[in-house]
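The protein record filed here.
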Amino acid sequence: GDEVITLIRSTSACKLIVAEQDFFFNTSICCADTHQASSILHSAVAASEDNVFVQGALKEMKEVEVVLGEELAKHFSLQVDLRIYEDLMVKLEKGDEHRLGHLGRVSLKSPTMVMINFADNPSAIKWAKLAIQKSYLNVTPQHEGVVLYVPVPRMTRERREQLARDAKGQILNEYKQALNEIYTRFEKKSAQSTTKADEERHTRQLLLDLKHAMEEKGANLIETKRKELLTEMS
């Protein structure tokens, strides 16, 4: 479908609204970055009408942006969100990976303690405990029988600062990695399918510019959420 990009300017901030059918993204970012990112996205949208590679990459990168928003919502939640524990990836002895929620039953024992029951997969306890210890949660689970007890991190000033650092580091890096994988895949498809060197170079540049623009949007979204969290402490 056709895409509409509307840039709303104000003295202090700009909001870029990208709409594609029923697919909406609202991201508030500073004016200088918005002008550049919106210009690049506008070019990508225009190019995608005649370029299937840019069109495909744009669609997938927007989907990754939605996932980023969901991950940030979980990451910065001040409530106990069991999905944070359920979605942790656990690498088992043979190297296969599974979501923690598939290996054990995750429940809230108390407002300060999460309980994970491994009655159906007792052999996974050791590896689940290791995954939790290595995660950004920064907690030490206690092992009793077929159950792991995981203390809920207290939302202290130090904890909020840690969440802010993790968002700017780990979450942003994972987002950029996902964008880069999309860029690489569609750039490779273009190189294999395009016979004209000029067209291939043009597509590669469009894909690269698109990746950088989406990285900028993600970084600014994370920065906005990070500042909101730290502001609550003051």
User: Anything to note?
Assistant: Confidence is low (pLDDT under 50) at residues 1-31.
